[in-house]
Amino acid sequence: MLNRQQPFRLIASIRSPFARRIRVVLSRLQIPVEEQMIEVFSPPHDFAINNPLGLVPALYHPDWGWVSDSGALLEMLEEEWGGVWPASNHRRDVRQASVWAVGVMQSTVLYFQETALHEFPNERWTQDHLASVQDTLRALNTISPEIFYFQSKWTQAAWDCVIALDYCTFRIPEWKWEEELLQLAKMYGQFQDDPLFQRTRPVAI
Ligand SMILES: N[C@@H](CCC(=O)N[C@@H](CS)C(=O)NCC(=O)O)C(=O)O
User: Fold this and answer.
1) Is 148 helix (H, G, I), strand (E, B) or coil?
2) CA dihedral 154, 68, 165, 99 (to 10 degrees)
């Protein structure tokens, strides 16, 4: 049994959408946490030696040790606390929508790396990553609203979706997705005044 009085330590970065998922879920479930924002190229020593992939988020608790990967973390938090996924017959669909939203985050990272960081961007890769972002968001735009809003609350799928949309807006500003994806644009609009959404937005340097 986990000592719940002892806060988690969350290693995150201000632009990571994956870390943002965990910042949001810990806040939603009112789980005590001390956030530590790092620069992934100069990580703290204990993070570096315990997380060989070097990726954020990573969460530390004396009773758990280190755990990384936002998907694995959601599963462990669900086991320990519950409340990540709705306890209903929508559960599988909500998880599937979350997986799609995380795929959008991943493809957006790859698109950004190819176009902005690689010395010689490859046109074929660029097109493939962009198509993956666009096709998946188009699919998310058509799913039933109850996957996103259930028993008067936004679901994890809704949060993952708006985090993915925010990251896509941040990294692929040239694609005006909100002109095409009207259902998603409406939901995204409803998050704009949410303090948790605002507090965790990616910031340019
Ligand atoms: N599957 C992982 C992906 C984590 C990931 O890719 N994190 C990125 C931040 S967006 C990272 O730490 N990258 C290290 C870097 O940019 O050097 C998860 O869901 O947590």
Assistant:
1) coil
2) -70
Q: How far from 153 is each of 15, 46, 58, 92, CA to CA, in Å?
A: 25, 37, 26, 17
For residue 45, CA distances in Å to 14, 20, 41 come to 19, 22, 12
Nearest CA to ligand 1 atom 12: 55
Distance in Å, CA 66 to ligand 1 centroid = 15
Q: The domain 91-198: what is its CATH number? A: 1.20.1050.10
Q: What is the pLDDT of residues 15-50, one digit of tens each?
A: 999 999 999 999 999 999 999 999 888 999 999 999
What pTM was estimated for this model as a whole?
0.95
* 8-81: in CATH 3.40.30.10: yes
CB-CB contact of 63 with 2 (8 Å)? yes
